[in-house]
Amino acid sequence: MAHVAARAPLQRGSAGFFAIILLVLATDAATKTWAASALLPRHTPHSVIGTLVQFTLSYNPGAAFGMSVGAYSRWFFAVLALIIIGVLLHTTRELVDESRIASIGLPLVIGGALGNFLDRLRYRDGVVDFIDIGVGSVRFWTFNVADSAITIGACCLIVALWQIERARAKHGASS
């Protein structure tokens, strides 16, 4: 797909690819370190924008949305994160080579996954979460910068897949 590749995606292993991963890791680590010391006691909301956006320190020993596999959740999800990173690196090779948005999305996902992985090693209580969004008592799950990077990166990968599939279908229809 010459017209897709012409967007000059970041190459896996390039300085730009690693820069995104390191930016996510540094931002995530800095904000979590700040949250763990500044937002005490745990589970006490600190208003940022009224009750819409609050910072509320909590630790998640499981995975997204409170998923848990019991007493070994911390280690199970740490190992799972490394496996997922390996699978993503292996399975997205062509996608990243073809799509600029995928070449940005993949390092966002990797940076976020590594950020939460490092928390599982650093904090016995689990991953530091502190961003608390909602209206009144209706709250979204508390999350962090790494979770945001994973979500945005996954959306980028989905959009890239959709764009490439659409381009292939269009190219197939014109042949």
SSE order and pairing:
Blueprint: H1 2-5, H2 15-38, E1 46-49, E2 53-60, H3 73-91, H4 93-98, H5 100-122, E3 127-135, E4 138-139, H6 145-174
Antiparallel strand pairs: 1-2, 2-3, 3-4
Helix pairs in contact: 2-5, 3-5, 5-6
Strand order of the largest sheet: 1-2-3-4
Question: SSE string, helix = H, strand = E?
Answer: HHEEHHHEEH
Number of strands: 4
Oligomer state equals single chain
What does the overall shape look like?
globular
* Number of individual domains: 1
Total of helices: 6
Portion of residues in beta strands equals 5-15%
Helix content: 55-70%
Class derived from helix and strand content: alpha+beta
List the uncertain runs: 1-6
**Could you report the average pLDDT, rounded to the nearest whole number?**
89
Radius of gyration: 18 Å
Major sheet details: 4 strands, antiparallel
Distance between the termini: 14 Å
What's this entry about, in short?
61% of the residues lie in helices and 13% in strands.
Characterise this structure:
The protein is of the alpha+beta class. The protein has one domain (7-174). It is built from six helices and four strands; from the N terminus they run ααββαααββα. It has helices at 2-5, 15-38, 73-91, 93-98, 100-122, 145-174, and strands at residues 46-49, 53-60, 127-135, 138-139. It has a four-stranded antiparallel β-sheet with strand order 1-2-3-4. Helix 3 runs antiparallel to helix 5 and helix 5 (100-122) runs antiparallel to helix 6 (145-174). The longest helix has 30 residues, at 145-174. It starts with a helix and ends with a helix.
